[in-house]
Amino acid sequence: MEIPSYTSNIQPNGSQSGIKIASENDSAKRVSSEQQARIATEARDQRQRSMELRLSNRENAKS
Prior knowledge:
Helices cover 59% and strands 0% of the residues. It is mainly alpha-helical. The radius of gyration is 26 Å and the shape is elongated.
């Protein structure tokens, strides 16, 4: 089987030595966790507003 010539340009991914150390990616993980928390809070707030609107509409319909 012939190997294409472009495969000779493969470089290791990560740090200079080609070995990724978990601590190198800590900040990315922290940002991701903060974004997930923000998204969860926004979703919770949106559900709360939606519920309040439904209850308000029911009360207005009864009047």
